[in-house]
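for the record, two folds in this file. i put them one after another cuz i was lazy. first one right below, seq on top, structure tokens after. the second one comes after a little note so u can tell where it starts
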Amino acid sequence: VEAVHLIADGKAPRIPQPKEGATYEGIQKKENAEISWDQPAAALHNWIRGHDKVPGAWATIDGQVVTFYGSSLLDASVPAGQELAIKGASRPGLVTKNGLVVFGNDGKMVLVRSLQFEDGKMIPASKYFSVDEATALELTEEEKKMAEDIR
């Protein structure tokens, strides 16, 4: 009760917390989340996972910053896929049916499930080489009549 009264009267002591021993980590910034490829697969996975969702671990692919999301360690034989050159990586990644496989400097693999481009567009990593297919909207006769009525 005494402490509450001291605060209410504006007389409570103010002791600044010393920075030594503090455990708070500052907010991560996007420019500090670039992936360093000269690491074992477990470290790559932890880096990607640790920056998932904000700010997002990223690398440069085809001159564009691409952010990686949803990583997991892959303990299997190297899957079939289309090679994808990643700036700074000693070995190209593989776009497979399950996602993007990247390699650590120990030869082990990490599977990345989602990629986000600079414009904010997010895709499944397995669809990296898929061309955007524009489909035209086709209306039935009844829907065309309804559209006319609405106009």
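(here's the note) second protein begins now
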Amino acid sequence: PLLSGARNQKYSKLSQEVVDRMQKLFPNMKDSLVAASILLANVYASSGDIGKATDIKIELHKSGAKKRIGVTVTDIDGKLWKFRAHDRSHAESAEIHEQVDRMSKRIIEHGHKYDASWIVRPMEPDETIETLLCGHSERLAMAAHFIRNRKPKRIQMTKNLRICGDCHEVTKLVALIYQCEIVVRDANRIHHFHLNGQCSCQDYF
């Protein structure tokens, strides 16, 4: 939780101290140390220190560590749907991505500004901040619910990684705009997004 909080506030110094302490006290907890190092790299990237973030990722690569791929799972009409970021493997992918675009327009109308600090890799020439963040797996999962059921009252999703800050803000707005309760179990906690646009975690995720 301390490292996650430091990530939210972009405190790279505190994040580094936490990871250094973890490496000293828990040298055998390889999976946890890899996850912490990736989070640390993301802190440096979000605070503008791309060089430091790259150095950490290079060291992780040299050590043979593999980053977990983010996957969101949700039940739609009794069938489990799995999504990765920018997933186009589903038969209805075109319609899902069109719905993501519609959701994006509506949240922008409600004042949302996409937060580039949650992008932790260089953008390709054909990419924008919006297209990168809108491709996150939980947004595709939400969109799939809306194309299957135009007015769902409740959406439940499970993500194997921690939800990013921009997705957290977007999901609050989607719950408010579409008047749909959304429950997301991520790697840290269960988030209950209410119809009033607030989350049960009180933004301490």
